[in-house]
Amino acid sequence: MTVKFKLLSLSVLAACSISSSAFGATVGAGTFNLSGTAIGTTTGIDFYLHTSGDQEGSINLPTSGAFAALAPTTVEIIQNLSAAPGPNQVIPGQPINFVNWIQLTDGINLDLTSIPIPSFPVCTTASPETTGYQCLVNGQSPVVLTKTDTGVAARINVTGDAHFAGQTTETAFNGLFTSPTTDFATIAAFETYFNANKAIPALSYSASFTTVSAVPEPETFGLAGLCLLAFGLLRRRTRS
Q1: Cα distance between residue 156 and residue 134, in whole Å
Q2: Per-residue pLDDT reduced to its tens digit, 110-146
Q3: Is residue 135 a part of any domain in this protein?
Q4: Model confidence at 237: pLDDT above 60
Q5: Coil, strand or helix at 83
Q6: What DSSP designation does 125 have?
Q7: Contact, 144 vs 118, CB < 8 A?
Q8: At residue 177, what are phi and psi to the nearest 5 degrees?
Q9: 94: helix, coil or strand?
Q10: Going along the chain, which residue ranges are E strands?
Q11: Which domain holds residue 44?
């Protein structure tokens, strides 16, 4: 009977070990910041740090929590966004599955799942130029323009999941790209340029990303409890 009990307990512990590996490490709560240059067109956004096409960004402080190991000025990978058909096709306002969109040197990758289109009016050359007025570059664009005291600012929100490279356990993240100045004094001037060129000129951006620790699923709690129970009973029987 004792032998059978030990074999059963050892089987449960082995299953716990395998399950633990399957669940993998989880990215916890934290923040990090990227900066670089972006060029937006009607077909996507290109990111670069040194030269167009390098698909890189630089870490800025502060970093915290799960991303605390990222050093300032570290070069990270941030891949271009394209509306072209394919596995990484990006269409604002629709679900996206861009796996490993951002790849960090601390071993954490970010999958892009959504670029929401906010509920703002579409910018026109006749848009109000009052400070604080907000509008979208066009009806299908997630880029929000804001009239400021000194010109026009731009921003984009993104959402997705963070995970360690090679792992499938994910933690949701929110990201915000901002450019405090677009080098245009008015929304009308920005719209005139965009309508003529179907593109946004190169902008310096800062991007902040935040993850929030996920609440474990009920089955995860159940597995953990079973594993602890098996371990405790096995130790008790061994001592006896």
Answers
A1: 12
A2: 999 999 999 999 999 999 999 999 999 999 999 999 9
A3: yes
A4: no
A5: coil
A6: T
A7: yes
A8: -95, 130
A9: coil
A10: 30-41, 44-48, 56-65, 75-78, 81-82, 98-103, 108-114, 134-136, 144-147, 152-164, 171-179, 199-211
A11: 22-213
Instruction: Classify each residue of 21-41 as buried b or exposed e, where b means 16 or more C-beta atoms within 10 Å of its C-beta.
Output: eebeebbeebbbbbebbbbbe
Whether 2 is in a domain gets the answer no
- Terminal Cα-to-Cα distance of the chain (whole angstroms): 14
**Residue 237 one-letter amino acid:** R
Helix (H) or strand (E) holding 23: helix 2-23
Integer angstrom CA distances of residue 27 from 18, 107, 185 = 20, 10, 41
Q: Select from 163, 164, 183, 181 the least CA-distant residue to 172.
A: 163
**pLDDT for 180-193, tens place per residue?**
999 999 999 999 99
Are residues 208 and 176 in contact, defined by beta-carbon separation less than 8 angstroms?
yes
Question: Which residue type, as a one-letter code, is found at position 18?
Answer: I
* Structural domain count of the chain: 1
Across 178-215, b (16+ Cβ under 10 Å) vs e yields: bbbebebeebbbbbebbeeeeebeebebebebbbeebe
Closest C-alpha to 154, from 85, 201, 104, 223: 201
Residue 170 has pLDDT above 90, yes or no: yes
Report yes or no on 87 lying in a domain: yes
The amino acid present at 138, given as its one-letter code, is N
Both tokens of 170, joined, read 């994910």
Q: What are phi and psi of 3, to 5 degrees?
A: -65, -45
